[in-house]
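Next comes the chain:
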Amino acid sequence: MRRSDREIKDKTEITKIIEKCDVCRLALSDNNIPYIVPVNFGYEYTHETLTLYFHGIKEGKKFEILQKNPLACFEMDCSHKLIEAAEACEYTMEYESIVGNGKISLCPEKEEKIKGLKLLMKKYVKDKEFTFPEHMIDSVTVFKLEASDFTCKRLNKTP
């Protein structure tokens, strides 16, 4: 990482940043043509492994691309604040971000789909447990991205 002074390595801090992020941008490649899509996500961060869970239907561009090429990048960011300065080139932005890559796979087994859906719902609704009717589990596709590499950064100029 070029700006190691901004790198966050502490797992607790990384988890706090993930919790603040509402959207994950998933970047895929379709015959060397980039495709990026914002998605809701759930996650599991154990030891040094970050696994992101997404859901969708069993058709469409994202589904088609992933069947051909499971390699993906992702990005999420939060805590934005413009920092003004005397000169235009001295302006900056406070932020926290996570960028990484890995391989996406489908979660074909019912138990794993439910796990992914529960983690996704837990990300956005902290104080409620959810159950999923059989017909809903059958109609949705759950994907997981196992992040083989990711970095977390923060720029905070506010005292």
In short: Helices lie at 11-20, 61-68, 110-124, 134-139.
